[in-house]
């Protein structure tokens, strides 16, 4: 979360733009300062606390996985031994220039950086930019300084930018939320499920890389035997995109999504099951299942309930001729 230390109003007495987090939320818009409006001495600042998530995300974006700059995966994610990448520190300057001063419409020409002190997880940084020179429009120079919670200089540099030439007022933009996992929460569950016989699973319209990729992962782990319903051409295209060989998978051709879903929803079957996402039932056993409503044999059954709409399944295993089908209820295996 950004913590803005300075208000969208400009004090002519101090030539300082100040924006607080509360005022920013109330304002709902950000207005820039054009090159003509800029004055030497104008300044702006934001504050930011270095977090573990910043280091992980920066490693993903930059490809820099230097172990000195990544947490070791232990519970002590706040370890002071972890060093923030210097370029992550330097990149904070662009947030002030692009968001606050001069603001929207600003473009970089060059940026010099000199790093004075290392930054660690938990350090609170103040990033300040000050207009120190105006050249021929739209060029302007800004002195940049980053200090830590002790007031020590962490980084200094000079930014040469093209300031916006027109006034822009834009809504405050909230970025999509990102969740960074520090542990695989499902590994143990998947390992336990992999010890059981795979479920014959029908998947409706897995016609993009994500839905087909999920089925592929489940198959590779031995969790399911997939049966696909959907457009063969689109499913094949998705398979090529993720470089997957599905030539041995059962496929029920159906180009109309509604027809595929309806066909699967009404099917009565004894062996196929559902998975989260676009789920369906085995469409091959309508005749077998018609008119039957048997209880699941206790000796051969295990129940699986998936809370996605009306999705759910019961594995009848070796329950002889016991029949289970999806009723129009959320509870499965219900007589």
Strand count, sense and closure of the main sheet? 6 strands, antiparallel
Beta-strand segment tally:
18
Helical fraction equals 10-25%
Distance between the termini: 52 Å
Which regions are unreliable across 5 or more consecutive residues at pLDDT < 50?
1-26, 74-78, 268-335
Q: How many individual helices?
A: 8
Radius of gyration: 29 Å
Order of helices and strands: EEEHEEHHEEEEEEHEHEHEHEEHEE
Category from helices, strands and their pairing: alpha+beta
Shape: elongated
- Assess the beta-strand content as a share of residues: 25-35%
> What is the averaged pLDDT score?
74
Fold and architecture overview:
This protein has 335 residues and is α+β, with helices and mostly antiparallel strands. Helices cover 22% and strands 27% of the residues. It has eight helices and 18 strands. It has helices spanning 21-27, 52-62, 86-99, 187-194, 209-220, 232-241, 257-265, 286-289; strands at 5-6, 7-11, 16-20, 29-31, 43-49, 107-111, 114-115, 124-134, 139-147, 153-162, 169-171, 199-204, 224-230, 250-253, 272-273, 279-280, 302-305, 312-315. The strands form five sheets. Strands 5, 6, 7, 8, 9 and 10 form a six-stranded antiparallel sheet that branches. The longest helix has 14 residues, at 86-99. The two termini are 52 Å apart. 30% of the residues are buried. Mean pLDDT is 74; it is low at 1-26, 74-78 and 268-335.
